[in-house]
Design a protein that fits this description.
Layout lengths: L6 E5 L4 H17 L5 E5 L7 H11 L4
Length: about 60
């Protein structure tokens, strides 16, 4: 199977609950093809303090 490019997502303007739904779909894709890389940008986190952004990401992507 040829190498697949990373799946790139820019998530902007969504609520935490909506982002969690997107994360569920990402995990479904990941389970079908665990070799695929994901590049995910959640707009708004760049202005947060590191600890705050990490807590948010752990809430959205608990397996991080």
């Amino acid at each position: 199977m040829p190498d697949l490019p990373p799946l790139t997502l820019n998530i902007a303007g969504l609520s935490i609950d909506e982002i969690k739904e997107v994360a569920k779909k990402i995990r479904e894709i990941e389970q079908r093809n665990p070799e695929r890389d994901f590049l995910i940008w959640i707009s708004g986190t760049e202005s947060m303090e590191t600890k705050e952004a990490v807590e948010l990401l752990k809430e959205i992507f608990p397996r991080m």
